[in-house]
Amino acid sequence: MKNRLFIFTLFLIIISCKAQVIGTLEQFEECASRPNHDEGCPDLENITYVKDTNNRLDQFVGIWKGTSNGKQFEIHFEKQLQWGDGIKWDRIFGRMIIKDNSGNILYNSLNKSLTDTGLLRGDNFQHRSYVMSFVGNYDCLESGDVFIETRINNPNEMKLFYSQDKDGLLNPAKCPNFSTFVSLLPTQKMTLTKQ
pLDDT tens, 33-64? Predict the structure, then answer.
């Protein structure tokens, strides 16, 4: 009798557990490059977890430093597994400190949590580049996509490029210096070196 009860209970537990359906970053990268990607990817509809099965994200993990336009950048990239609500994704997050040439801190997100704004938030690969989003001072249209890519012949060097959003509602009362506002991140390619 105890064996039947145990087997029945085990059977109910197995049936009630929803199986995790794993997809890969590569599958979603390929999906995004399809001509009909706006219509969705029906072969990926039941995915519950987008996994970095080939550890492609590991190349970015660590502390990277570089300079651009008179600013010193230090970016701390970390990999988070199964991040998010709904579909879970393996992602890279970046916290950064930016200083001017005199060492004055212009921006610091090193102590921010992963749910705060002001971080670099990973999305997925686009060819060899990993695409991240950034929202800084949104009232001054400080948001956009960041593309990072390590060099094939030197994985300790990374190129970073920021594509600032051009669309958005600007409220001059919240960004009175918009005409002279300078983006935190460089809009020209910058080289970072792994520390």
Answer: 777 766 667 667 788 999 999 999 999 999 99
